[in-house]
Amino acid sequence: MGESDLGNYESSRLHAEVEHEREVKEMLQDSVSDLRNTLADLERRLHSVEEEENEWRTRYETQLELNEQLEKQISVVRERLQTLRSDPSDRLASIRSYEEMSEDALRQRLKLLSSEKSGLQAQLMDFRMRIVQEGKAYQKVYEERRAYLAEIAKLSSTLNLSRKQQMAEARRTAAAPDKTAGKSTKQHSGAAKKGSVNNTPARSRLPRLKH
Prior knowledge:
Blueprint: H1 3-86, H2 88-99, H3 103-204
Helix pairs in contact: 1-2, 1-3
Pfam families: DUF4600
Keywords: Coiled coil
Protein name: Coiled-coil domain-containing 169
């Protein structure tokens, strides 16, 4: 194989290596692009979940405040009833006030008190149920948020690995021409030295001229 053929072979091999590295680089770039798009989508979904989580947290805290107020109202009513039962004078005063009322007024009063009592009890039960339901909804949103964060962390790690691989491939591609050129130079230099060595004995075998 002559020097020209050797040079053509080295050039073809170098071109093939460069093309292979280019294809690998493009593949890595596509993978990185896909990962970035997926990561961006997850971050948008996480932002939406966080907004929903804040909304549920606000509703949950508001519900707790309403329940606390209702509990206070019920507590006041119970204390009032307990006072009426334990304080004879106060009870007699209430009785005297009722004695002054007509039978229809007493019935209306009793009906109103019973209605208020039933309403308060119904509200209390409803608020308790809503607290349980909204607590479950809040927990669900919280679990979804944790899942999104875990997925984002996983994708970020994969993206960083792909970037490192891409940089390594780029460095190897940049170093390949220098190595190939050095190898080719050494081969040409070796061939030249071999030719020089082979020519030296040939000159030594020539007959000496007689004077």
